[in-house]
Write a structure and sequence with these properties.
three-stranded antiparallel β-sheet; mainly alpha; single chain; Glycosyltransferase; two-stranded antiparallel sheet; binds alpha-D-glucopyranose
Length: 426
Amino acid sequence: MANELIEHAIEILRKNDQGTYTVPTHGLYPFQWNWDSALTALGMGYYDEDRAWVELTTLMDHQWEDGMVPHIIFHKEDEGYFPGPDVWRTGRSLPTSGITQPPVSGFAVRRLYERATDKAKAAEQARPLLAKIDAWHDWFYRCRDPHGSGLVALIHPWESGRDNSVDWDIAFERVPTDGVEPFQRRDLQHADASHRPTQAQYERYIYLVQLFRSLNWDNSKLHDASPFQIVDPGFNGILIRSCADLADLAEKLGHPEIAARNRARAEAGVAAMEALWSEADSQYLCFDRKAGVMIKNASIAGLLAVFAPIPKNRAEQIGARLMDMGKQAKYLVPSQPVGSDLYDGKRYWRGPVWLIVNFMISNGLARAGQSDVVDRIVSDSLSLIEKGGFAEYYDPMTGEPCGGKTFTWTAAMVIEFLSNADREAA
Ligand code: GLC
C-alpha cells in the first residue's frame, strides 16, 4: 500500500510539473505559489534531487530587490485565475504578486541538503540560495516588524497561507470595501462555493491589494499603512524555524556571518513568542497589532508554532492539547476546533484538515519527542488520503475531500509521511 501511494503521489507531482516550477493543481491555481513550491521540493527530492533544487531556485530567482519573495509568480498568462497580474500591477518584467507567504524555504533547503546523496553537488546548489533566503529573512524583520517587537506581522490574509481563517474575522471588519473595482472571481469555476471564501471576504482582499498598489508596493510604507496587521504565531514559528535551519546549514557550508545573523533572529523570535502564549487555551494565539489586542480564537495557528524550536514545556502542552482535540475530531488537525462557534468543516481554513500543516506540526512534535501524538497525526493523514485521494483539504469529521483535486503539496507530504523522514531527522 505504501509503495502504491508513493507511486501515485509521484504521478501527481509529475503531472503538475511545468519543467522549472510546479503548479499547485491545474485549473484552480495555474502559476507558481511560494510555500507550495518549497514544500513540493521536499517530495521531489525523494525521486529527483536535481529537479527539487530547480524548484527552490526558480522561486528564489523571483525575489524582489528589497528582499521580499512574492507569493505568486505568474510564469504564463492564464485567464482562469483572479486576481491576475493586471490587478497586482507590481511592475516586474515577469509578473508577480506584491505580498509574500510563509517562509518555509530555509527549512526546505536544509532538509534537501541533509538528505542529498551527493553532498558536494548539493552544497553547490544550496550555496547561492543561502544569501537569498538570508535577505528574505532580513526583509521580514525590517519591513514587517518596523518597530522592533521581535515578531513580524502579516498585512494581508493571503500572506498567512490561511486565507479565510476565523482568526481574521474581527480585524477584517476594519478593512473597508469602498472603491473596490468590480471583479469576477474565477475560483468558483473550479471549486464548490461552499468550500471557498465568501464574496465579502474577496472584496476586502482586493481592497488591500488596491491600497498597496496605490503605494507603489513600497515595503517601507505598506506595514504602517495597512489597516490589517496581524502577528500570527504559526507564521512566526515557520520564520523562526527557517532562520534556525538556515543558520545550521550556513555554518556547515562555511558562511559564519549568515549563520550568526539567523541564529540571533531565531533566538529573539523564540523569546518574543512567549507573549502570544495563552495558558487558558494551552496554545499560542494571534495578536491584532493595529488594535493592540490578542485574538481570542484557538485556531491551528497557535499549534503550528510547534514547528519552531519553542521551549520543551510549550511543545508538551501543545501535544496534550492536540490529543484532547483528537477526542472530538475524527481526523487531526482541524484548522478550527471542531465544535467551536465558527467551525465549518468544509470551508477552506475554517475547519478542514490540511496535510502540509499536519506535516509541519508533526515534524515539530517529533523533534520535541512527542511520539504518541505524531503517530496519531500521521495515521490520520494517511487515512484521509486512502479514503479521499490527494485533495487540497479534508473535512475533519467525515474525511470528505474538498477544494481542488490531485493537489501537488498534498502529494509531496504523503511522500514525506511514508518515507518516514521526520523521525530520522528528529
Ligand atoms: C490557497 C491557500 C494557500 C496556498 C494556495 C495555493 O490560496 O490558502 O495557502 O498557497 O492556495 O495552493
